[in-house]
Design brief:
Elements (H helix, E strand, L loop, with lengths): L29 H10 L5 H26 L4 H26 L2 H9 L4 H29 L5 H12 L1 H7 L4 H10 L3
Helix pairs in contact: 2-3, 2-6, 2-7, 3-5, 3-6
Length: 186
Amino acid sequence: MAKGPEGAEGRWADGDAVEGDAAEFKPLTPEEVRLWRQRHPALSVWRVVAWQAALALLVWAVAAVGVLVAGDGRWSRVASVAYGALCAVLPSTVMAWGMTSSALARWLGAAFPGVARASLAGWLWWEGVKVLLVLAMLASAPRWIPDLSWLGLVVGLVVVLKSYWLAWIVRPTARDRSVCSRTGMG
């Protein structure tokens, strides 16, 4: 039997089982699965997009207030921050639409129901579209924003990209999930 780092046969230092210790595994019953899913509701991709949009508006407003307070009239900085935020929100929205509502998503779901490879292929496709869209938007930024502030653009982009952790922390509870499913928001 394999020895863990602490020398305990069949176990790692944190108590996890190692190879050959499959006797402790017990599959969940359908009732246990239902209860687990109630306690751990799925995170909607549209909730992440909503958080990104909210943070985009917030970072834009903070940049605008900063320019007003500074009084230097450099509104190109505000435009740069807003464009950086848009470089995160727009591609994420396109990917969310592609994964949930596009003809490709509907076709993959109908042609290969329950097949993980089809879901992975769809995710890889839309992730590639998202990355190419971000790169195209960043490359064209100097053409769209005169007197572009690259620092402002990166600040807007990074702040909005960090919304993933916020959407994860502020997850809906089981009660919120039932409300969201009735209203179509979840």
